[in-house]
């Protein structure tokens, strides 16, 4: 029994170190209707408090909306029938490591800059299928029609 | 061709039917100031710098259209649901400590009850305590100092009754100055703890 527990423990510890948890990029803060998070081939129903990681795609359908807060306090919302990909995110002020890369693929979005937008606006990369958007610490809206 | 023209006429008649492309609209910040947004394609750039400024790009091979200015009513009509879905930005509180001590300054003493009020009102389970330093001395020492400051602030908030499980402590060191200064500059206003109720 003890040996078994040890094995389980060493397994947990081992996998814990071998696969360090990916850094949290943000959280779902508001949700109406049925939004989804697409992560590594899985489809997850988005609910308030859910964690977002780099490479997640977030989608909404008819009548549904989502609000996201990233770790640097950037705030983004998705209107109905929208799709956003969080391509990159890093926020480590101590090491002056900053990065935001977001693809607004379709739908409507509201965006409000956070700390990265203030400290390192050149590290914020927003793009749609048609254009790139450079941000100098502000609030704006985007609509993308496919 | 005729089908496209008919579609265009239909689109013009019903403003909800939008044509392919990207539209960007600049808004006023919550504090009333207005920032800037640049929309670019390989064919050109358009700079939005006033509240309501808007441009449209039909596809990546075209330059952004000339600026238009949308009024509040039109913005509300076209972007109502997505504006509604915007999370409230975090509320920020600053705590300062007596020099070299774990006691809050007289000015900071009334702040913890305000923090607790914000946590209760927002029903927040996400409180960030960010320690900061000024730029005097070594970067590593400042990282440690600002962590100690943040941990001190957390202890104060625990004493005031905040649930420790909703608080996370971070150290920003000298990487996120409130008052921008050169390196090796003493600046008491930068030696702060920022509490974000998210």
Structure characterization notes:
The complex is a heterodimer of chains A (146) and B (198). Chain A is α+β, with helices and mostly antiparallel strands and 146 residues long. Chain A has 2 helices and 12 strands. In chain A, strands 1, 2, 3, 4, 5, 6, 7, 8, 9, 10, 11 and 12 form a 12-stranded mixed β-sheet that branches. In chain A, a hairpin with a 2-residue loop joins strand 2 and strand 3. The longest helix of chain A has 17 residues. Chain B has 198 residues and is of the alpha+beta class. Chain B contains 4 helices and 9 strands. In chain B, strands 6-9-7-8 form a 4-stranded mixed β-sheet. In chain B, helix 4 links the parallel strand 7 and strand 8. Chain B is elongated and about 75 Å long. Chains A and B meet through strand 1, strand 6, strand 7, strand 9 and strand 11 of A and strand 1, strand 2, helix 2 and strand 8 of B.
Structure class of chain A = alpha+beta
Counting H and I runs of at least 4 residues, what is the number of helices of chain A?
A: 2
Query: Helix content range of the residues of chain B, please?
Result: 25-40%
Q: DSSP strand (E) fraction of chain B?
A: 15-25%
What shape does the CA trace of chain B take?
A: elongated
Mean pLDDT metric of chain A: 89
Range of helix content of chain A:
10-25%
Largest protein interface, residues of each chain: A-B, 49 and 49 residues
C-alpha Rg of chain A (nearest Å)? 18 Å
**Which value, in Å, is the CA radius of gyration of chain B?**
24 Å
């Amino acid at each position: 029994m003890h040996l078994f527990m040890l094995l389980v423990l060493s397994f947990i510890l081992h996998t814990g170190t071998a696969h360090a948890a990916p850094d949290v990029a943000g959280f779902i803060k508001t949700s109406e209707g049925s939004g989804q998070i697409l992560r590594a081939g899985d489809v997850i129903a988005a609910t308030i408090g859910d964690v977002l990681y780099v490479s997640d795609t977030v989608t909404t359908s008819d009548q549904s909306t989502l609000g996201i807060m990233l770790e640097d306090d950037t705030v983004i919302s998705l209107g109905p029938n929208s799709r956003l990909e969080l391509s990159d995110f890093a926020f480590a002020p101590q090491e002056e490591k900053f990065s935001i890369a977001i693809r607004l693929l379709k739908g409507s979005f509201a965006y409000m800059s956070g700390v990265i937008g203030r400290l390192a606006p050149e590290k914020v990369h927003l793009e749609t299928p048609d254009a790139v958007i450079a941000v100098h610490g502000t609030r704006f809206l985007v609509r993308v029609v496919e | 061709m005729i089908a496209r023209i008919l579609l265009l006429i239909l689109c013009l008649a019903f403003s909800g039917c939008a044509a392919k492309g990207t539209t960007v609209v600049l808004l006023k910040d919550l504090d009333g100031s207005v920032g800037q947004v640049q929309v670019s394609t390989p064919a050109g750039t358009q700079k939005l710098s006033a509240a309501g400024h808007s441009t449209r790009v039909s596809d990546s091979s075209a330059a952004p259209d000339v600026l238009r200015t949308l009024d509040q009513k039109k913005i509300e009509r076209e972007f109502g649901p997505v504006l509604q879905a915007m999370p409230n930005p975090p509320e920020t509180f600053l705590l300062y400590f007596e020099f070299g001590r774990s006691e809050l300054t007289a000015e900071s003493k009334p702040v913890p009850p305000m923090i607790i009020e914000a946590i209760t009102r927002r029903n927040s389970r996400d409180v960030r305590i960010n320690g900061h330093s000024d730029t005097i001395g070594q970067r590593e020492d400042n990282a440690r100092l600002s962590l100690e400051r943040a941990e001190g602030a957390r202890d104060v908030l625990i004493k005031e009754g905040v649930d420790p499980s909703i608080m996370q402590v971070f150290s920003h060191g000298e990487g996120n100055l409130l008052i921008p200064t050169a390196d090796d500059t003493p600046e008491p206003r930068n030696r702060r703890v920022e509490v974000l109720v998210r």
